[in-house]
Design a protein that fits this description.
Layout: E1 2-3, H1 5-18, E2 24-33, E3 36-42, H2 58-70, E4 78-86, H3 96-107, E5 116-124, E6 127-135, E7 141-144, E8 147-148
Parallel strand pairs: 1-8, 4-5
Antiparallel strand pairs: 2-3, 2-4, 5-6, 6-7
The structure holds zinc ion.
Residues 85, 87, 94-95, 98, 120 line the site of zinc ion (ZN).
């Protein structure tokens, strides 16, 4: 899972704005190789909206549709990847509740996803830190490699 610099910039800005409050949104990505994805865009929902980031928000559905349309509705290459949110005050490992929420999303047949990704970020000493997990419809979760492109 690659996060290119042009996606990191708005992400870091959102984390700074949110301060000690959590924020999050959806990940829009590109399939760049076998089991390899790049985040091309992400939505940012301000603190307060976080608990409900997944389904209930019409704005997110619209953002996903707009993104797919802008890429010519080439869904196998450009599509919804999953969710992100911040843990400003603790480790970027997903909480038990995060795992439960994402597993529900991955196994929800109405969503119909082949997989969903959860990225958790925080700013630590002004540096972007993150973790990536992939959830499959069989209920399994897999740690994924997160490549913050351009950061040593
Ligand atoms: Zn969390």
């Amino acid at each position: 899972m690659t996060i290119p610099p042009e996606v990191q910039a708005p992400l870091i800005a959102a984390l700074r704005r949110a301060g000690v409050r959590e924020c999050g949104g959806v990940l829009l990505g590109e399939h760049v190789g076998t089991n390899d994805f790049a985040v091309r865009s992400l939505t940012v929902h301000q603190p307060g909206a976080v608990a409900a980031f997944v389904r209930g928000m019409g704005g997110m559905v619209k953002a996903i549709k707009t993104y797919c349309r802008s890429k010519g509705n080439d869904f196998t290459r450009f599509n919804y990847l999953g969710e992100w949110h911040s843990h400003p005050l603790f480790s970027v490992q997903p909480s038990a509740k995060d795992h439960t929420t994402m597993r529900e999303l991955a196994t929800d047949r109405r969503v119909g996803a082949n997989f969903v990704v959860l990225l958790v970020f925080r700013l630590h000493c002004q540096q972007l830190e993150g973790s990536a997990h992939t959830y499959l419809p069989d209920g399994s979760v897999h740690l994924s490699k997160l490549d913050l492109e351009g950061i040593e």
